[in-house]
Design a protein that fits this description.
It is found in: Membrane. Pfam families: NfeD. It is a multi-pass membrane protein. It comes from Candidatus Gemmiger avistercoris. The chain is an alpha+beta fold. The protein is 46% helix and 21% strand. The protein has four helices and five strands, in the order H-H-H-E-E-E-E-E-H. A five-stranded mixed barrel has the order 1-2-3-5-4. The longest helix is centred in the middle third of the chain and has 29 residues. It is rod-shaped, with a radius of gyration of 27 Å.
Length: 149
């Protein structure tokens, strides 16, 4: 194993570790370029050739992946991770009793949420989201009046 091969192996490991630590896609293209340069190092000891392969493959990886990720980001909306106003008006059911002044849990829109209500709502009772307070849904019981609205 030549010194250049060891260098590229260490570089690839460093880029992969950096990517794993940041999780922000800052070095994955360099890891791809490093793998290509590592492969070339088995066939030639020329550092300029290896460096050129590293630079070209890294640039190609960057040029291919960034537009693809931008397109994917536009297509997929991030998941709702807080008490989004999008849940207002949705119906669900109580997972854990909700007592006035205390938080309970509800299942709304396919997710488990913390919830608060002005009246006692037992487990299993149907509910409707009337408002949102941060990551807590404000719910009321589903009655004939609230089910239609």
């Amino acid at each position: 194993m030549t010194a250049a091969t060891v260098f590229w192996l260490i570089a690839v490991i460093a880029f992969v570790v950096l990517e794993a630590v940041t999780t922000a896609l800052v070095s994955v293209w360099f890891a791809v370029g490093g793998v290509a340069a590592l492969a070339v190092s088995f066939f030639t000891d020329s550092l300029p050739v290896q460096g050129a392969v590293f630079a070209v493959v890294s640039a190609i990886a960057l040029g291919v992946m960034v537009p693809a990720m931008a397109k994917r980001r536009r297509q997929n909306q991030p998941p709702v991770t807080n008490g989004s106003p999008l849940t207002i008006g949705k119906q669900g059911y109580v997972l854990a009793d909700i007592r006035p002044g205390y938080l309970g849990r509800v299942h709304v829109d396919g997710l488990d949420w913390q919830a608060r209500a002005d009246i006692l709502m037992p487990k299993g009772a149907p509910c409707k989201v009337t408002d949102v307070d941060g990551a807590v849904l404000i719910v009321c019981p589903v009655t004939a009046d609230t089910a239609a609205v």
